[in-house]
Amino acid sequence: MKPTDAEVAQKVRQWLDFAEEDLRLARHGFSVPGSPPYRLIAYHAQQCVEKYLKAYLVVHGIDFPFTHNVARLLELVPQEASWTEQLRDAEELTPYVITARYPGEDEEVTEDEARRALDVAVRVQEVVRRALADEEFPM
Hints:
Blueprint: H1 5-29, H2 38-59, H3 70-76, H4 96-101, H5 111-134
Helix pairs in contact: 1-2, 1-5, 2-3, 2-5
């Protein structure tokens, strides 16, 4: 059974809401007193990117694997979406999924890296939201 447009729209909005929560948490991480949790900021930035891309894929009825790999998700976006080239640097956020979950599996995340991850997430947010608006998805 094919989902209705309303069901698809609801699912997309859920992905977008979750992405926004991750972005808010990433931003908030810098305000933590003492030593901000840079690895968690970077992790939530990555999660924001992942969820925005998955929202776009849902709009287009594209099945995606259970993956955190940003490069793989960008590959699944239809070729007509030329904006994906603007977001290739988002692929560098993928390792933060491991860094945040598994001690000793990667280098510590620096403040500069966390700030860059947040900047990339904000750019993905802007680009994907613009793409959805251009395609007249009801935001």
